[in-house]
What we know:
This protein is an alpha+beta fold. The protein has helices at about 15-25, 35-45, 95-110, 155-165, 180-190, 200-210, 245-250, 255-270, 285-290, 325-330, 335-345, and strands spanning about 5, 50-55, 60-70, 75-80, 90, 115-120, 130, 135-140, 170-175, 215-220, 225-235, 235-245, 275-280, 295-300, 305. It folds into 2 domains: about 5-130 and about 300-330, Gcn5-related N-acetyltransferase (GNAT) (Aminopeptidase, 3-Layer(aba) Sandwich), CATH 3.40.630.30; about 135-300, Gcn5-related N-acetyltransferase (GNAT) (Aminopeptidase, 3-Layer(aba) Sandwich), CATH 3.40.630. It is built from 11 helices and 15 strands. Strands 1, 2, 3, 4, 5, 6, 7 and 15 form an 8-stranded mixed β-sheet that branches. It has a 7-stranded mixed β-sheet with strand order 9-10-11-12-13-8-14, sandwiched between helices.
Amino acid sequence: MAVKVDRLDFSDSIQRAAWSEYVAAHPQATLHHELAWADAIGDVYAHQPFYYIARRGRDVVGVLPLFEIRSLLAGRMLVSVPYGVYGGPLFEDEEAGEALRQAMLTLAAERRVRCVDIRSAEAKWPGLTNIDRYAAFHKALPEKVDEVLGSYPRKSRAEVRHARDQHHLDVRFDSSQLPLIWKLYSQSMRRLGSPNFPRKLFAAFVQRFPQQQLCSVIYRAGQPVAGLLSFIFRDTVLPFYSGCDEVPAAQTGANNYLYFTLMEEAVRRGLRRFDFGRTRIDNAGSFHFKKNQGFEPTPLGYQMYIPAGGELPNLTPSNRKFHFAQAIWKKLPLSLTRPLGSWLSASIPG
Length: 350
């Protein structure tokens, strides 16, 4: 029986249930394939979703999440999925995968996009341009909370112990900490010369994933030093958005302690894996920080489809075209970078 591909109707509860059941059962599914991720994006941005579901008879045999982004910086593009680390198609067999690929090609032509950004952990479709720009970092968690510190490399273990014992840092896990986390995050983004995502995006994610999120803030003598919004998917915790007050964080080792306490909390909750997200290979600071925490990089299988006349966009901070703007951004007040960054984020799909 031939595979038929249809666009998902987000208002149809039966179609939503079919999508969700397929994603829940698929071994390669990610948090970003869940409809709650699309719903959160829809709560904040005007990006148009094109979610495709493939069936063979009554059986769902594949899905493909896509959003159309109309970027002021890169033109019109399709992204699977924006503001996420992972995405791309999920399918049962070659026929289903090819049917979804054809749906993507047809949509790209109809929407006249400059490119299609496919963020699969492993490359799924032959013939697309492979993007070797990012690596992921994963590590198994120990079985007991008191084994977390011992799972660190020696130098990082000493840094965590020093932060805990010498600076008396304290952690609080509570979703009420979210506004503070966003303030620390946007402060860090300004320091890096990069636009921040809006606070309402953070709020939308927490609202849409009420049982799959963790908000944590590190305090020193009652003062917030570092904050983190993390997600939970199956047996894995995914730290996602973080920020810090630079000087006290550097003085106390708060960033090391931030992720250490997240690992401890994850073990308490029975989680088995820590997904440290993606990092650009040319981002030496973040790349080496994660390696020093005992993680080994795994190249991500991102791919791009570039139609005739299209081009490969580079919206990363390493793009030399942005260097002057970054230098100016770092000098602007937070009262300006926070709303301006929130506006620009509609053109930068993460």
